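WARN no homologs supplied; continuing
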Amino acid sequence: MKYASLMTLLGLSIVFAIACSSETEIVEVVKEVEVVKEVEVEKIVTDEVKVEVPVVEYVELVPEEGPKREIVFGGLNWNSALIQNAVARYIIEEGYGHETSQIEGATVPLFQGLRKGDIDITMEIWLPNQNDAWSEGIKAGEVIPVGKSLEDNWQSTFLIPAYVQEEYPELDSVEDLKEEKYKAIFAEPDSNGKAVLYGCMSGWGCRGVQTGNDSGDGQIVNMGLSDHIEFRDPGTAGALAAAIEGAFTKKDPILFYYWGPTALMSDLGYAEGKIVDLEQPAPSECKDNDPVHGCAFPAAEIMIAMNTELIDDAPYLIPFFQKWDWSAKNQLLAEGNYAEIADDYGSAEEAFEATAISYLKESDNWHSWVPEEILANITVALERE
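OK structure emitted
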């Protein structure tokens, strides 16, 4: 152990790589942090993670006494992000002494807010969905990855119920949707004979992957499906889930986008093979493994991102997010708990906060994410709940 003495300037050097191309580009952001009291300093170097964020060096600090600025979270409009927000916000408020808030919205505008500094923390940056914006933000020195968010994640644009495939056993590929007899299965009265695809919502990164963005024409065009599929924007994640649940309840055909692990996919039996992912070109067949060029989504890498201005204002939050470990088990249990209690509260934010408190009371996994002094603060707060 080493100790930092009064008014010692510590160089906080964060080195990371951009996971958006086949060549790793190293960018360095250097910030100086003034420590106004003697603190124990522990230097930690993390192992490489899949998205090629190979090295992060930091010093572990506890916050100084006195006023602290508000920390603003990006309130992404789906449950896993909002549950993680609620857990992180409670820890930061009760443990580190910051007030917190969140700005709600969709992926694209909230990431713009993160780059500009209107938002300090976003708990879920989905790659490859946000490859271009993520790369630009890192190169500009506006954002940094500070931890790994969800794990074991997948997503697909072309899912169908297994009961549909049981009736049409030769329907197993997106290429089959070009045949009249198969696309007719998913056609609706107003789709002119095209198969209706319930896809990703406007404002989400996955939408550009499906219908095109600055990097490419999108999966539908590049898989040659433009004349065979009519894309439908469900509007919200809740509406998409309702359309899927409704179809499964009635045993109706449906072609849809979704991701997991989520409570919905678990309830509908994804792990038991009750949902079929139609065969698509492998990610390796696309430039830079980017599905916008006409292949399947690769396994999702989901990062926690910080605006670089927060490095000066709250450097002690970097080791907290580095140690963040939100497993699929945590997520599914928390989503299930939220679903049970959501109607008991006056607002969704109150219900998410209650879900977070329940998790923090019932689990000790998070104890290793924070120093002992911070853990003690949170424990006292939880005893009052």
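The first helix runs from residue 79 to 96.
OK
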